[in-house]
Amino acid sequence: MSRRKKSKIDAGDMEDNFAMAVDDGDASDGGSDKAKVEKQISPGSTQASTDYIIISNNVTPTKEKEEEGEQDSEQDDPTGLEGAAFQSRLPFDKMTATEASCFPDISNDMSTPSLKEFLHIRNRLLQLWLESPKEQLLVEAALPQVEPPYNSDVALVTRIHSYLERHGLINFGIFKRLKPLPIKKQGRVIVIGAGIAGLAAAQQMQQFGMDVVVLEARDRVGGRIATFRKSNYIADLGAMVVTGLGGNPVNVLSKQINMELHKIRQKCPLYDSSGKTVPKEKDEMVEREFNRLLEATSYLSHMLDFNYSGGKPVSLGQALEWVIKLQEKNVKEKQMAHYKSVINLQERLKTNQNKMIALKDTIAELSKQYKSVQENKGTRNIAQEFSVRYKLRDLHNACKV
């Protein structure tokens, strides 16, 4: 089931900077030998990428992994300015709706040079940040690296830099600040929950000069990201797989903390509770059923417009639960119909067995009567002979039944 869950990236949506965070273990699905890499060619298309596992120690790749890597149909991601926009989940050659609202002077200007200048500066700043994500990108340092004549409008470069920083497209994660935070805080914020989202939000707002307090109910941080340790055994309880590196902020975070990513083998077998390998046919059957449930849920949402229940929006999880319950109801109804047919057959069998028992008793009685008249070895009169032959005929007829 290696193709069961694949992340989709909308290049035009620049708000979801952490939408493609670490997957919580769903990539342990196995059984498919097909490559699951369909790299995005253009920034506006949909991507489904290879999964990567996070490990912190160096592992020498085996020959088998090298062979699998050679068989991959993975295409190279865009590079240069186009690649910078792609990795930032932005279209390379056009403005997003948010950019258009923040830069009305450019979006309302129909002249091509101003739009071209904006896109070049934006993509160049993204490229400079992605090339060195461990250090804060200052507008003073970036300005000389923007090629002329695009660096002539210093005010525009500063505005674009501030926009990218404000929306978390640059200077996010764990990096070295070159400009100290202001002593006077601009506001006080309380973040509830120290999961990956809470920590990222707190870190980002702290970079904006806010006084941030994080509240966590448990005695550890990380939320669903947790590692279980017992003796010499270590197991990740969730979020150990990065699903696709293209346009994924986790890729930047891994570089900032020197976290090594290793490609997951395409062949990933499943094991049941007894330690035996789950048959590939069974794995594929479960995958087909899972995809069928997703298709049914999508049909309810898009074709039947069933998105609300009791005035409240229906989540994907709720819709899946309902579809599963309807499926179970259908199976139970078929099961009940089968049980009723079995009961009818049992009643017919019971009737036949009663008839057979009665016939057996009749045959035994006729056989007993026939033997009793046969014991008379002497000469029989015509009435006695008729009685013998009559009982023999009845016995033959009973046996034919």
UniProtKB/TrEMBL annotation:
Single GO BP term: positive regulation of cell population proliferation
GO molecular function, one term: FAD-dependent H3K4me/H3K4me3 demethylase activity
Location of the SWIRM domain: 81-181
Region (Disordered): 1-82
UniProt cross-references to Gene3D superfamilies, sorted A to Z: ATP synthase, gamma subunit, helix hairpin domain, FAD/NAD(P)-binding domain, Winged helix-like DNA-binding domain superfamily/Winged helix DNA-binding domain
Compartments it resides in: Chromosome; Nucleus
Superkingdom, natural source: Eukaryota
InterPro entries registered for this protein in UniProt: Amino_oxidase, FAD/NAD-bd_sf, Flavin_monoamine_oxidase, Homeodomain-like_sf, SWIRM, WH-like_DNA-bd_sf
UniProt keyword list: Chromosome, Coiled coil, FAD, Flavoprotein, Nucleus, Oxidoreductase, Phosphoprotein, Repressor, Transcription, Transcription regulation
Compositionally biased spans, kind Acidic residues: 67-79
Pfam families per UniProt: Amino_oxidase, SWIRM
Cofactor(s) demanded: FAD
Compositional bias per record (Polar residues), positions renumbered to this chain: 42-61
SUPFAM superfamilies: FAD/NAD(P)-binding domain, Homeodomain-like
Family note: Belongs to the flavin monoamine oxidase family.
Name of the protein in its database record: SWIRM domain-containing protein
Protein source organism: Ranatra chinensis
